[in-house]
Design goal:
This protein is α/β, with parallel strands linked by helices. It has four helices and five strands. Helix 3 crosses helix 4. The two termini are about 15 Å apart. This is Putative pre-16S rRNA nuclease.
Amino acid sequence: MKVIGLDVGSKTIGVAVSDAFGWTAQGLTTIYWDEFDITSADKELQKIISEHEIGKAVIGLPKNMNGTIGERGKASETFAEHVEETHNIPTVLWDERLSTIAAERVLLEADVSRKKRKKVIDKMAAVMILQGYLDQNN
């Protein structure tokens, strides 16, 4: 069963997909959406879920450093419920506190330009979220 990883932001959703064995996460795309219209990413997500035969979604949960859940975390929880209801797959919320920072560091070490980093940071964060989940569950 393949697993999709989602880094949900206010304007973009980074997307990563696992291999069929659930060992590795690969960055797939970034979906541009309107968080005030929770259905605005449904068409693209459904296409990816069908095309890759996804059986589960791992959605980044941005917690505060003290472990509490703020506004962005609540938005991720709402999005996870929406994915379960709309796409009929189970979701797991995954602590993503440092995923964007780790993604930025990887891209800096790879000497990726600032302009290119901005284009791939969400996708890379989705990879970090999904890979963390896969590593812990294998």
